[in-house]
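Database export, one record per block. Field names are fixed; values are copied verbatim from the stored entry.
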Amino acid sequence: MIASASLPFMSPQEYLEWEEQQLTKYEYVNGEVFAMTGGTLAHNSIALNLASALKNYLRGKGCKVFMADAKLGISEIGPYHYPDVMVTCDRRDQSARKIVQFPCLIVEVLSPGTEAYDRGSKFAHYRRIETLKEYILIDAEKMSVECYRINERGKWELTPYIIDETTSEVKDIEVEFDSVNFRCQLSLIYEDVIFKSENQIL
C-alpha cells in the first residue's frame, strides 16, 4: 500500500466516485487514498486456496466469500479497505453490489511491507465492525496462521496455528475458523506455495 501524496484530500463520496474511474484499486483512510500494490505469487496462492475452500464449504449456507477485488466499508464514510479474503453471512450484504459492510471473517496475508499496518491500524479499523467475529493473519513466508477471535467479554484473543519446521517430525495441524464453523488442514492453505530460500532472489 502506497500513499498517493500527489492527490488532494477527498471526501468519502469524492473517493468513491473517483476510484470507479481508476485502473488501480485505492484504499481510503481519513481523506487520503492509498494505492494497492501487487503481492507475491505465494500471497496470491494462499488467498486463492483459502477463498476456494471457504467458498466450497459455505455454498448454500447463506454466506458470501470475497477476495481482494471486493471493497469493505468500515462505515458509510470509511475507511475503505480491500481485505485479501472476507466472508459475510449478513442478510444486509446479500444484495450489495459495490461495498461489503457486515463481514464476520476477515483475512489478510502478510507481506513485509504491510505487516505492521495489518497488525496495527488496519486491525483497529476492522475492530469497529460490530459483525466481525474473527480476524486472520497468514504469513506468506512460513506456515503460520494467527486467528484473533472476539470472546464473550468483547475481548480479542489470539490462537496461533504454527508448524515448527525445526523439529525432526513436521506434522500437519487443523485450523479452525469458528465464525463460520470451518475447519481445514494448515497444509491446504499453503498448497502449491513455494517459500523463498535464503539464496533466492525472485
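Remark 1: The first strand starts at residue 2 and ends at 3.
Remark 2: The mean pLDDT is 92.
End of record.
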